[in-house]
């Protein structure tokens, strides 16, 4: 018998496989901690629900006595396994006494499940696959429907989805978020279809500019999907005849009309970091080179939104943490890497 059992997942949305693992965790220990990943991510076709909404789905699928034994621990995506493991361990330690006997319940689905081996101090309970469902299949069926046909679209999968989850999905389809996520889901599918006939999946190369001045950072609001309306640092795709440096200067100028001379930016360049986590972009495997500039106490350069930017703004560094849930893909993590916002940072990627 263990004192605490852990279950780690994203639960986007909750399905029967999740519940089978959760029931095993409840059998293993009087207290269960469910680590809900991708917390504070902005809504996207891959992460359509807030961690609070996912917590509600988990609890609604359980009998009342079991709900009282479950504690939910939200953990952000750090795009760095070592830092993420540290954050999970720190969170669990807050809810368990020293020397507690801890079991980690999970299933090795594929390479993305390797994190289960990252906690050698905990007992690993490796279960076979529970059911045939995965959340990606549910999301694809869900976003291919309309608000009035969600039930029909999910009917072939209903045996693997708790009734409470289906009810939540039907209600969510009538919110303002559903059509926006549907549009982005369709755009991403078209994006992938465009290179589906390639001999192997392409690897995209992008650049980003983290420009700091007077303890403010230059951010944009994205004008187009994916991530329409979300915060990001200026950046974009590398063009065929450019170096990453040339591409960074071009994207900064195109999106913000920042007119700083190249020599000024060269002198302000502090470092360049590569962000290459396989899951950092839903568009496909995308590796970016982020350039960090610090202009010190110089006057804030005049900026104006253009190209792929809907809006530009100088945001105080001290306000970035409160905006975490509004950032596109891993751009909050990118700022965290350079500016040490969360206090849990590591190497890029």
Q: Can you tell me about this structure?
A:
This protein is about 30% helix and about 20% strand. With about 350 residues, the chain is an alpha/beta fold. Strands 6, 7, 8, 9, 10, 11 and 12 form a seven-stranded mixed beta sheet that branches. A five-stranded parallel beta sheet has the order 3-2-1-4-5, with helices on both faces. It is globular. The mean pLDDT is about 95.
Can you summarize this structure?
The protein is of the alpha/beta class.
- Class of the largest domain in CATH? Alpha Beta
**H/E series, N to C?**
EHEHHEHEEHHHHEEEEHHEEEH
Number of helices: 11
Mean of all residue-level pLDDT scores: 94
The CATH level-2 architecture of the largest domain is identified as 3-Layer(aba) Sandwich
Fold-level CATH name of the largest domain: Rossmann fold
Instruction: Specify the helix fraction band.
Output: 25-40%
What does the radius of gyration come to? Answer: 22 Å
Question: Could you say which structural class the secondary elements and strand pairing correspond to?
Answer: alpha/beta
Identify the CATH homologous superfamily of the largest domain. HUPs
Global geometry: globular
Question: In total, how many domains does the architecture comprise?
Answer: 2
Q: Could you give the count of β-strands?
A: 12
| Unreliably modeled segments | none
Largest sheet: 7 strands, mixed
